[in-house]
Amino acid sequence: MPPDAMTEHPLRPALESTLAELGLQAPVDVLLAYLDLLARWNATYNLTAVRDPQDMLRQHLADCLAVVKPMSRQLGQPPGGGAEATPRAIRVLDVGSGGGLPGVVLAAMFPHWQVVCVDTVGKKAAFIRQAAAELGLRNLSGEHARVEALRGAPFDVITSRAFASLVDFTRLSRSLLAPQGVWMAMKGRVPTEELAALPGDIEVFHVEPLSVPGLQAERCLVWMRLRTVPTNPTAAV
After folding, report:
1. Is residue 235 part of a domain?
2. How far apart are CA 143 and CA 163, in angstroms?
3. Where residue 118 sits, what CATH number does that domain have?
4. Is residue 215 assigned to a domain?
5. Minimal CA–CA distance to 211: which of 114, 69, 93?
């Protein structure tokens, strides 16, 4: 698209205000083009129940942008792929991605990461592929599959947003988690009952409250990993 194609976009001031409140620098034109594409496809394919683009910005895009700094801190990787980024390519899996939330946002904010979005609905996976092509996100791909059927290299981060309970989320995706990898689940209120139901080999090492600009609702991130079982060399055989 031309460099100034999004200059007069009606949502540009609101997005720039959101980014300023979150302390983020971002490819604004790419994010606006994503909102336009999401709204256009949503009219036909029902990717999200939110119809108004302004509501999409507040309820979806801002919600996903709020996780950028926590992910950057956890992984030691700055947004934008600057010189401080480690040479190792971070692999991220977004489970039940739907309209690419948060996968498309993460791919746009971290161009040095490889982001895979998986969804069981074919049209949603097709949307991700179209978004990757139209937005020029070469680090983004979409898979039409059940997460437990995926194969390939493991992921450093497996994330989900309103996908399933924590038990089901971790159970279905645990074979895809790298040895030192983490799960990051985007939740509303702290899911106390779900946390209590997790199996003993999963450690919840941080429950992080989030503040989403323009959204008067509780949000949190639940960070999890597989427990490391210490080896006792003196244990009796």
Report:
1. no
2. 16
3. 3.40.50.150
4. yes
5. 69
Structural domain including 96 reads 18-74+88-226
**Long-range pairs for 143-150 at CB < 8 Å and ≥24 separation?**
143/116, 143/117, 143/118, 143/119, 144/118, 144/119, 144/120, 145/118, 145/120, 146/120, 146/172, 147/93, 147/95, 147/96, 147/118, 147/172, 147/173, 147/176, 148/172, 148/173, 148/175, 150/93, 150/118, 150/176
Tens digits of per-residue pLDDT, 127-163? 999 999 999 999 999 999 999 999 999 999 999 998 9
Alpha-carbon distance of 135 to 69, in angstroms, equals 22
Distances from the Cα of 45 to the Cα of 40, 63, 98, 127, 137, angstroms: 9, 22, 11, 9, 22
* Number of structural domains found in the chain: 1
Q: Answer yes or no: is 145 within a domain.
A: yes
Global pTM reads 0.91
